[in-house]
Amino acid sequence: MVLSNKKLKQKLRTLLAESVEAAESGKPAQDAAAAEGVQQELQSLKELLSSKTHRSSRPTRRGGKRKKSSSLEEPTNAEAGVVNPEDGGEIAAPSDSNKDKKKKKKKEKRQKAIPSSPMATLADGAGAAALHPKAAASHSFAVRSALAPRSLSVYASSSSSVSPGSAQSGSSSPSSAWSVDSWKSRRALQIPAYPDRTALESVLSTLEAYPPLVFAGEARKLEERLADAAVGKAFLLQGGDCAESFKEFNANNIRDTFRVILQMAVVLTFGGQMPIIKVGRMAGQFAKPRSDPFETKDGVKLPSYQGDNINGDVFDEKSRMPDPQRLLRAYSQAAGTLNLLRAFATGGYAAIQRVTQWNLDFLKHSEQGDRYMELAQRVDEAIGFMAAAGLTPEHPIMTTTEFWTSHECLHLPYEQALTREDSTSGLHYDCSAHMLWVGERTRQLDGAHVEFLRGVANPLGIKVSDKMNPSELVKLCEILNPHNRPGRLTIITRMGAENMRVKLPHLIRAVRNAGLIVTWISDPMHGNTMKAPCGLKTRSFDAIRSELRAFFDVHEKEGSHPAGVHLEMTGQNVTECIGGSNTVTFDDLNSRYHTHCDPRLNASQSLELAFAIAERLRRRRIKLWGKSVFKLPEGAVL
């Protein structure tokens, strides 16, 4: 029995929906008998629509000839049999002309060979998609490719440049509306309990009226750079304090950390022969997540220290009580730090001609200092050659550097207060930093932190340990980056060397199979924290280097890009991590242990690690692209 035209259309829409569902689930959409019946119904529908269109499309003669269409015109959707999404998925029947059967057959043959759009074969292929799961899968992909929103018209392969462009917000979720305070409807972990809510609201209102610390255009530029890193065209160097403190806030400490990052970037640029994206854990990295909200000493139970922007580290009731006024001080310190960093980056201090002057005093006569000076002399000679050849070294690219800031998105009331709508794009940016990341303890799919971050357009990071399930990572990426914008997401792996070799391959494959574009970087610090015999927390330099080695090994085997490193480090001559060429032992820890939270690499250890990474990048480059005339000074490698 042939159904009515209306019912057949409804049946076909149901069939298409089942095809898509079956393709995604891997189950056949119909059994053979049902599919055969649908095929007959589909054929009847096509004949019916064709005859109706033929009758309605006959031209009126009224004393003149029928107007011929130009042979250069594109066939309309009705001629090509294309589903128009704006028409509710109805199939437009092909027009029929008795004047030239041969031309019609040729046109149909061309349309089958080269569809005018991914949807052009939908009408003829619907029955096949219902019969065969593989055909249904490709049919489903065509449907989604045609209808899914995209921030890029074309995403270049690794052999071409990548630019996110001026995309619309890739952070909104189709499932629910987002607003700057929609996170309040979700469960929020690690949020301090302020005893005086009125005082907190007053401070937040003040922060909302303050100027932004960073600008949307700067965050967009960072996203473009990270998109290059995702395809192996750049390398991310992200480093700074575990937690910034009010006590250590001074110009010298900021300068020294910035200077070590510049030194490391020179080494990595020389070894990798690629741009180094410099991002500091600075100008906002105050709050720290805690495994226990309370700390007990000698029978006294007080709130845990959560960072200088929340409470104090002194173990007494007054210090440990969350104080909203600390948020204003944190904003002020972040603004001062950013002001100094901008001056260093663009005021001449970061000029490559000063490469030999960046060495810290306590490094000058050390092994790492000597290796750096040897490399700096080569760079200096290259600059001299450029000047002699008439290439001016005074170009801004030689006298300035790009530098961005980042921190963990933890204190959501503070982050909300500094979120602004960009007047250029209409998107919301968290203007407390250029880049934000969600931590291991706050990355729940239905949690408040993920809800907040999905709506801001900043580049985002996801801290991932060995506890992360591959399917969960894919879901998290899809929530935070539904439009798959290159450079939007950076996955920061932290799991220890042995776990890295076992767990990371599964995560890489899951993300790749889902077609997601991410930037993979390694945090070799957090998976290697231990307690020294003296009771202090420390990290082993050898364990850190082993995890980085595993990170590079896994990516080489998987054919993916090791795109960066995330370090807790300082420009100070501290003794917090054991090991390195200037061997720091357990006995040395107490001499210069200044951290307020987790142990950091000192300047010498940071530079030594940079040389090891640079040599690994150099070998990878030679393996991929051929021999290189550049060699790094001898030393340890990954």
TrEMBL record:
It catalyses: D-erythrose 4-phosphate + phosphoenolpyruvate + H2O = 7-phospho-2-dehydro-3-deoxy-D-arabino-heptonate + phosphate. Its EC number is 2.5.1.54. Keywords: Amino-acid biosynthesis, Aromatic amino acid biosynthesis, Cadmium, Chloroplast, Cobalt, Manganese, Plastid, Transferase, Transit peptide. Binds 1 divalent cation per subunit. The enzyme is active with manganese, cobalt or cadmium ions. It is found in: Plastid, Chloroplast. Phosphoenolpyruvate binds at residues 281, 440-441, 463, 494. One of its GO terms (cellular component) is chloroplast. Residues 52-69, 100-112 have a biased composition (Basic residues). Belongs to the class-II DAHP synthase family. Pathway: Metabolic intermediate biosynthesis; chorismate biosynthesis; chorismate from D-erythrose 4-phosphate and phosphoenolpyruvate: step 1/7. It comes from the Eukaryota. InterPro entries: Aldolase_TIM, DAHP_synth_2. GO terms for biological process: amino acid biosynthetic process; aromatic amino acid family biosynthetic process; chorismate biosynthetic process. Mn(2+) binds at residues 242, 526, 568, 598. GO terms for molecular function: 3-deoxy-7-phosphoheptulonate synthase activity. Residues 22-121, 158-178 are annotated as: Disordered. This is Phospho-2-dehydro-3-deoxyheptonate aldolase. Residues 39-51 have a biased composition (Low complexity). The keyword Transit peptide applies. Its cofactor is Mn(2+); Co(2+); Cd(2+).
